[in-house]
Amino acid sequence: MPDGGFGVYVHWPFCQSKCPYCDFNSHVRHRPVDQPRFVNAFRSEAAWFARQTGGLPVQSIFFGGGTPSLMLPDTVGAIIDSIASNWTLLPDAEITLEANPSSVEASRFAGYRDAGVNRVSIGVQALNDPDLKRLGRLHNVAEARAAIAVAQRLFDRHSFDLIYARPGQTAADWERELDEACRMAGGHLSAYQLTIEPDTVFASLHAAGKLEVPPPDEAAALYELTQEVTARHDMPAYEISNHARPGHESRHNLVYWRYGRYAGLGPGAHSRIDGKGHVLGLSAERHPERWLEQVERQGVGTVFEEKLGPVEQGDEYLLMGLRLREGIDPDRYRAISGRGLDRRRVADLVENDMVEHLPSGRLRATPAGFSVLDAVIADLAADPF
Amino acid sequence: MTKTIDHIRNFSIVAHIDHGKSTLADRLIQSTGTLSEREMKEQVLDSMDIERERGITIKAQTVRLLYKAKDGKEYTLNLIDTPGHVDFAYEVSRSLAACEGSLLVVDASQGVEAQTLANVYQAIDNNHEIVPVLNKIDLPAAEPDRIRQQIEDVIGLDASDAVLVSAKTGLGIDEVLEAIVHRLPAPKGDIDQPLKALLVDSWYDAYLGVMVLVRVIDGRMKKGQRIKMMGTGAVYDIDRIGVMTPSLLLKDELMPGEIGVITASIKEVADTRVGDTITDDRKPCATALPGFKPAQPVVFCGLFPIDAADFEDLRTAMGKLRLNDASFSFEMETSAALGFGFRCGFLGLLHLEIIQERLEREFDLDLIATAPSVVYRLTLTNGDEKELHNPVDMPDVVKIDEIAEPWIRATIMTPDDYLGAILKLCQDRRGIQVDLSYVGNRAMVVYDLPLNEVVFDFYDRLKSVSKGYASFDYHLTDYKTGDLVKMQILVNAEPVDALSILVHRSQAEKRGRAMCEKLKDMIPQHMFQIPIQAAIGGKVIARETIRALRKDVTAKCYGGDVTRKRKLLEKQKEGKKRMRQFGKVEIPQEAFIAALKMND
Fold this sequence. Notes:
The structure holds 2 protein chains of 2 kinds.
Chain A: E1 6-12, E2 14-15, E3 27-28, H1 35-53, E4 57-65, H2 73-86, E5 88-99, H3 103-106, H4 109-115, E6 119-125, H5 129-134, H6 141-154, E7 157-164, H7 171-184, E8 188-193, H8 201-207, H9 216-232, E9 237-239, E10 242-244, H10 251-257, E11 261-265, E12 270-274, E13 279-284, H11 288-298, E14 302-308, H12 310-321, H13 330-337, H14 343-351, E15 355-357, E16 363-365, H15 367-371, H16 373-381
Helix pairs in contact in A: 1-2, 2-4, 7-9, 12-13, 12-16
Chain B: E1 8-15, H1 21-31, H2 49-54, E2 61-68, E3 74-81, H3 89-97, E4 101-107, H4 114-125, E5 129-135, H5 144-155, E6 163-164, H6 173-183, E7 196-205, E8 209-218, E9 221-222, E10 226-229, E11 235-237, E12 240-244, E13 248-250, E14 253-254, E15 259-263, E16 277-280, E17 299-305, H7 311-324, E18 329-335, E19 339-346, H8 349-362, E20 367-369, E21 373-374, E22 376-380, E23 385-388, E24 400-415, H9 419-428, E25 432-439, E26 442-450, H10 451-454, H11 458-465, E27 471-482, E28 484-491, E29 494-495, E30 501-504, H12 505-522, E31 530-536, E32 539-546, H13 562-577, E33 579-582, E34 585-588, H14 590-596
Parallel strand pairs in B: 1-3, 1-4, 4-5, 5-6
Antiparallel strand pairs in B: 2-3, 7-8, 7-16, 8-15, 9-14, 10-11, 10-16, 12-13, 12-15, 17-19, 17-20, 17-21, 18-19, 22-23, 22-24, 24-26, 24-27, 25-26, 28-29, 28-30, 28-31, 31-32, 33-34
Helix pairs in contact in B: 12-14
């Protein structure tokens, strides 16, 4: 088992409509998607990746998107079976599916459970209807509550997502909403600060001055408020934007953040697998139908391949690992990157209360450091003085 | 066949930048058949890339033209092309000394500009016969009558028989050639006297070594002759002798009045002294020529490699440039902030810019230039005198009795509309008005200004306030004592030596404020608050604060995003390489230059 574990990601690239803030690889189709044909393509890719990695034990599968809850339960089941037959699926493997909370989709939750899914992550995003509408969501708050209730009944582990720092949102609004969310939550909650991503509807509105997002000071205050409220409910952040009660952390996402290995199946999916003396970074054709055709022709949808050397791996380990409250292991960083962390840079960051050493020898960001983590990482990754 | 001295004409072209000097030279070369169509290119005498790109001449070039005049005789015309910019005025003066006449080229629509004046007065001082040439006569805006009148009014030169040309279309070129033959005097000289020749210029050629441009006054200069430099006393045997066509054409000897080139196993350009008199070692002439004042560097700055590992390469590159440009000087310098580098002396800001650009381009070096500084003269309390090239070296104020700074006399010509803004600019820079006069709707202002107020960005500001219409020329006049103080910039309480400047007390607060504001814009936010202060002695005169970074984190980062995130991180790492560390603060190198530019 690689350091950080091994998981399989499955990307379902379709949505009913495109949300204005989203820059993920998602596409809207007005004709029914030929799901059996996609299943075959996923099977081909699973077999291709398994030949590269050998029969590793799989500790997690994650269906992301797009909107995976538009998949038929049979489609999901067939893909899980194919992963299980190409690798060794551990008995306690976490199998998560991202779902939208519309009543139609919630009605499929039982089918997903029967297909092998044991965790859902629901895209709730907001607990008030006007904001849901502004975020381009097709559900309302009542449906969201109902979907969470269904998940509660069917799954031991489930989660939902919220977006905050929304246009016009005050600290008081957010505190009330987050407080309610924590009470509704099972063991896990993700709270993402709204960011304006390039090439989205929000980016155009923002550029045209028609969408205001909170300035850095307010955004920082909202972030701090989020930490306070979740801590009150015993759901501290184990990652920048992810909160869980002990034992409810997303094991799949921990594979990424602990810089483990993962095979990504589907259009636009990224992978990190071991090569000979390096790590291979692969990414697939993003366009669904073109991906399908390429997989049918060549067995895999990879369009970009990069050999990651020690420096690149070191950078990625910092980028991912420092997002976690458990931080990084400096010895592992040294082993991966071929160089130690620069003592003077670390000392300066410690002095500025940005990072701290743990008794275990690990290094992690302090609460102040998390607010400016990108700058902290840039410092640690930079060449020594 | 050796032609007699009567059939030689030596001439320069003086003009303001952009008035078409190089194009006219091209046409003269072309129409005398000196170069074939195939060999011809634009600005043929400007051999450096940087000269062609900027459309300027840096290094004087010489070319021999053979012209069959309308009187049926063949004449040898020696043209010495000269730079137009003030920084290279010394090149102009030596070229003029080798000639008997000049073409004064004036744009027929723009008229007389500041550089025209400076150069034409130099030509008059050298007793030149001057032929006015009005160029760009083909343009609809050309007003030859008005410009003729202007030449008479401003320069005091009879322009009634000015030659009208278009160097672009070739119109009037024959008339120019005839005017050179008939209106410029032939050189004088005595072939029977001992050799007396003027060392006009020297440069380094990768194949031939040091080449020396000479003007023979009396006697003969021959291949194999043992010559003596009268000033330095050095003796050499002439290896090669020839004329520039513009490539070297070997000959056996040079006669009085001729301009040519010799090589003589001279190791370095620095071994030759421009203006020296060359004579025959065995049969020397009685008296030397008056010679020229050597060009003195007036502006100094530090040049440091961005990558410390490039230091030796920088030293080698500077040595190579100096082979060809003895007016550029350098010595090693260490800076707490910037590491090892060189303190360099230049003839002016354009010279500085050009050397820096050539080092970066021709030798592929990345450099940081520190604040340009002039040469101050300090009188210490113990009576010693000291020249100060670098504010960092300034002694403790209690040991200084007084500080003197160089002043210049500047001539600015401008359309009337911009006069107000220009007067304000000069006043703001401590200028003292000497003269203000009008020619038509153009004003000519003469100001005395401290050079240290000019070296930063005066020229840029002048261009900006006049929308590019004002022209500017200057020469150094003298040193005057001034109330000068050393201003330091402290970033996060650490003094940044590379940003120390000497400044007049009356300007200190304004400059300090401007520098702090610039640095505030240029230094990225850090994880802590950064005070930026300007201080004189221990007293803070201006302050800005860069607030601590509050929020900088990617909200969502899944596996798929990591490649994109890593690419961003790699860019940040690259950016950090180009920053300099001061205490705990990283300052981007652009900040050093930006901090010194002022927005008045």
